[in-house]
Each structure stands twice: as structure tokens, then as C-alpha cells.
Amino acid sequence: MVSPPHEAMHRIFQHDPGLFSRVSRFLGVDMPPPVGAAILPTDLTEASPVERRVDTLLRLETAEQGAFLLAVEAQGKKHPEKQASWACYVSYLWTKYRLPTALLVVCQDHTTAKWAGQQVSSGPAQVPTLTLRPLVAGPHNMPVITDPEEARADLVLASLAAITHAAEPAVNGIPKALSAALQDAPEAVADPIIEFTAQGLARSPAKDLWRNLVAVDLSFYKSYIAEEIRTEGEIHRGAQDVLLVLEQRGLDIPDAVRSRVLECHDPEILRQWLARAVIATEAEQIFGDE
């Protein structure tokens, strides 16, 4: 099952195909901005029963170089068979579309990025018939964007910076800059950035920082993460209200009661317990006949 970071690392290029040209300067190449872009089907399965699927496939066109394909792969760890699969993807796409094909691998840690960037060849050493040389975007070359003005200049790149630095100590400064920059952005622009960043940080300690920033700085947005945070906050306050009424009435609150109240995530049940807390003579009575 694919993880949220995996999806964010490649789907962000579907959201903004021009991102590749802006990222390329950090990868040692200089791709001009596209004058045309299209998202292509990612299924590379042939007539044989072997299924092959690239994460994201884009057809980009520049004024200087014409059309080419960009295959984007999100890679979370080293995989001994992946490089052969990548070579298959590139050669198949080249054959199917008759267009030059580039491969971009997006990583979140230095070890995987170093492995993914290795040049590999098929054939004897004297005859390297097919050579694979991927471009790699990761914490080793993506910018650390901690200035809100810099983040505001390219919100999608700032989101990718947060995603690729998810496991790095420097990551915390990026969500702070990004959330500040998003305060001025229209909701239609901000919502996808909020979601991509949340997905990309899903397995990072910075995920809680981003959730809190969204809840405080971007509370007026209706994204699912903002709604989820606000709901959690309302539930937490409801549980605290139940305990506060019991405490104010001078009732003893056993640890089992306190834990059960704090662990409840149903707002309706908490409202029932609150109503009973007003008249209960013992804390356990708030649970009624349950």
C-alpha cells in the first residue's frame, strides 16, 4: 500500500508540471519552462501479464527543445530491482511515444538519494548498451526555504522542499515559512499545497508542527486537514469541560474515569456525559447505564 509521502513526492508534479523546470537548476541541469504540458497514463503494462506502472508521467514541451517525457518516481528506500524497472520504463516510453524520456527520482533521505543517482548500465562493461542516468531530487540538493518571501515566490517548490527535507533537522523552518506565505494565497491555491505538504510530512516529526500551523495560521481554509484539526480541538475541549464540571462540583475523579473521558472521540457522547456531570453525585454516574 502506497504511503502519503510517496504520493506527495510525485503527485506534486502533476499539480504543477512546470515545477520540473524550476527544480532542474538544483539538479545540475537547466531545463527551460514548458510552453505545454499534459499528464499521461501511468500504466506501462504490455500484452504480457507483467504489470508495470510509473508513478507520474508528464509530456512537457519547451520552446527550445520541443516535446519530451518526464517520468517521476517517488522512492522511499533502496530497492535492488528498481533500477532495472526504471530502465524498462524509460526504454518502453521511448518506444511507445517516440519521444526523448527523462527520469526524475524524488527521495526523502540521503542514503536513498545517493543510491538512486547511480549510473547503471545493461550489458558487459566493454559494451554498456543501455545506460540509465536518473536525475534525483532529495535533501542533498533541494533548497531549504525558511524565508516567507522566498516561499511566497514559489509555493509549490517550497512544499517540495518541505517534503524532501522531511527527515532532516532543518525541516521545521520550511513549514513555518510556507504557512506564513500561504496566508496571502487564495484558497484554491493554498488548499492543494496544504494537502501535499501534509502528505509529504506524514511520517515525519514535523507533521504535528504543520498541523498546528495550519490550524492557527490557516484556520480560514476548508482543507480536510484544517477541518480535522479543528474537530480534534473541539473534542478535546468537550472532554475538558466534562472533567471541569466534575471538579468544580467537588467530586472525586478516579483515574479510570478521567482516562475514559479523555479517550472519547465522539462529540455526542461527550455532550451526554457533560449533561450528566451537572447532576451526578459520583463521577462514574456520567456514564449512565453504559
TrEMBL record:
Name under which the protein is recorded: DUF4365 domain-containing protein
Q: What is the lineage of its organism?
A: Bacteria, Bacillati, Actinomycetota, Actinomycetes, Kitasatosporales
